[in-house]
């Protein structure tokens, strides 16, 4: 019985050592992945990376990671001329094929989400003087932009300063986001010297989205515009 006890204790100690080594290895890999993502330009600041699945070392041998999670609250996105903050970014990546030096990685499938505040969203829209070029009474400065806010499920509200413009909708086609349906009515129409003028749709195209993902959907929320991402066969590193 004492011999079996010693063997059992030995196996427990060995298992603990292997588990410990596995956890150390995954921690090193997470740090290296975050650093390589930053260097490759897939993100503009070092993200938090979490590699799931156990044991990790067997995934290393197959050069394919089952579950990789990425998060950051300091990323930016933009249209090439303006950059705005992307808050609460989170992504879940499955089937991540990596090179032995972690210098390249591709993703079978990935999903993610993030939030742009309405104040930042306004910075991606054209100046108001371009939206209502013939208006005489709104006193639109060269850099005045529509101010946006939540208008209810699927809706956003817009205003020129204190003058409301009405509700509109926002949608995307690929990485291009379009806000439309706004109309100068009531006081806005009187001040502008126009009658029920419908504003042209305004669009911007987001470039360099995080983790190589693409824009899948946009949803108005009370605190901003929720962006949903997805992708297949995307390049994460390299």
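-> sequence recovered:
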């Amino acid at each position: 019985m004492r011999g079996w006890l010693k063997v059992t204790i030995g196996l427990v100690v060995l298992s603990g050592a292997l588990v410990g080594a596995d956890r150390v290895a995954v921690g090193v890999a997470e740090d290296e992945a975050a650093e390589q993502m930053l260097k490759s330009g897939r993100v503009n600041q070092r993200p938090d990376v979490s590699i799931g699945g156990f044991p990790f070392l067997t995934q290393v041998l197959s050069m394919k990671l089952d579950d990789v999670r990425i998060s950051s609250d300091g990323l930016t996105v933009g249209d090439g001329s303006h950059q705005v903050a992307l808050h609460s970014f989170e992504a879940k990546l499955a089937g991540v094929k990596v090179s032995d030096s972690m210098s390249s990685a591709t993703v079978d499938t990935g999903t993610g989400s993030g939030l742009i505040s309405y104040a930042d969203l306004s910075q991606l829209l054209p100046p108001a003087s371009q939206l209502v070029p013939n208006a005489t009474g709104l006193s639109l400065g060269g850099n005045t932009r529509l101010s946006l806010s939540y208008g209810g499920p699927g809706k956003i509200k817009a205003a020129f300063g204190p003058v409301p413009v009405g509700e509109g909708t926002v949608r995307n086609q690929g990485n291009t986001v379009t806000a439309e349906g706004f109309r100068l009515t009531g006081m806005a129409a009187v001040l502008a010297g126009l009658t029920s003028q419908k504003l042209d749709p305004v669009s911007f195209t987001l470039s360099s989205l995080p983790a190589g993902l693409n824009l899948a959907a946009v949803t108005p929320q009370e605190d901003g515009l929720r962006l949903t991402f997805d992708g297949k066969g995307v390049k994460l590193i390299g």
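Confidence is low (pLDDT under 50) at residues 1-18.
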